[in-house]
């Protein structure tokens, strides 16, 4: 069968590559065309890559406005490619601003649409639920709490686990020893605290200064910021100047695995940290106006996927316009070894791991997708 897959971000590229491998195992004659990145190209063949996510990534209202002509041109290009390829199904991976337009067009053309990794409509922009219900034939979700949410909206989702579990397992098998890790990265013998400041320039600017300030309260620990390769090192250097915080690029899971605790922004990184069993706190700076509007804009009481999935506060979230350094320091002490909250958090993380499910999610999703396509054909 023919599969056209659209991912517009690095995380989508990762999940898309695992899905492609799963589909190839389930459907040996599978053919692929896709928008994604190097990982999807490696899994599905570089000749199948139409657009790289680096060409498609536009974040922020102003940036999007400046690039509207490019964005609509890309949408038209994707539509033309789909029409030419004639796929059995179009699989959309998150990236809703772009992908919902494609879903609507596919519906008019009579092309089946699967949405893999649902837009976070349960947090904001809930109006997209109507579009999902109208234009998407099957919705595949990666968080267990989404099942009840989408059912309440008249959509029956398919949950097969979370592919992040597979990624963690694969990387854990390749981890160096603690001694090797310290030696290779020029780190000393002090216990490590990982700083995950975000994956976008705006997040780094907002969160890294507070994280650096927090590190100064713990001279007995070694703080390491886990940088992402698509952000210029100069931005990190600007905020790390005059501090002892170390910079490591593209080694997030390695650093987490070697850490006693982590300070994380929000999003998928909070879930990744928890599934690795590393105690964490969430620290996220927002403008004062956002702080005032948050109860009216955000549909849920938490920003971390740990708390959202568990339905209660497991990790402390310091999401504010002005951080109280003492509160942050006390929270970090509480989750370090010997801290008052550490044992309970570790137990909660084990419960979360059971809730999310075990390894093999990508293969289970692939099997479910092939089965659903075959059902459509009869």
Characterization of this structure:
It is built from 19 helices and 13 strands. It has 378 residues and is an alpha/beta fold. Helix 2 (38-44) links the parallel strand 2 and strand 3. Helix 11 packs parallel to helix 12. The radius of gyration is 21 Å and the shape is globular.
Would you spell out the secondary-structure blueprint of this structure?
Blueprint: E1 2-7, H1 10-26, E2 31-36, H2 38-44, E3 49-52, H3 53-56, H4 61-66, H5 68-85, E4 89-93, H6 96-109, E5 113-116, H7 128-135, E6 138-141, H8 145-152, E7 158-159, H9 164-172, H10 178-184, E8 192-196, H11 201-215, E9 222-227, H12 233-240, E10 246-249, H13 252-257, E11 259-264, H14 268-275, E12 280-285, H15 288-297, H16 305-310, E13 317-320, H17 325-335, H18 342-356, H19 361-376
Parallel strand pairs: 1-2, 1-4, 2-3, 4-5, 5-6, 6-7, 8-9, 8-11, 9-10, 11-12, 12-13
Helix pairs in contact: 1-2, 1-19, 5-6, 6-7, 11-12
Total beta-strand segments: 13
Biggest beta-sheet profile: 7 strands, parallel
Distance between the termini: 15 Å
Number of helices: 19
Note poorly predicted spans. none
Strand order of the largest sheet: 3-2-1-4-5-6-7
Average pLDDT figure: 91
Class from helix and strand fractions: alpha/beta
How much helicity do the residues have? 40-55%
Identify the overall geometry: globular
CA-based gyration radius: 21 Å
- Beta fraction: 15-25%
Q: Short description, anyone?
A:
With 378 residues, this protein is α/β, with parallel strands linked by helices. It is built from 19 helices and 13 strands.
Short key terms for the protein model shown above:
seven-stranded parallel sheet, 51% helix, alpha/beta, 378 residues, single chain
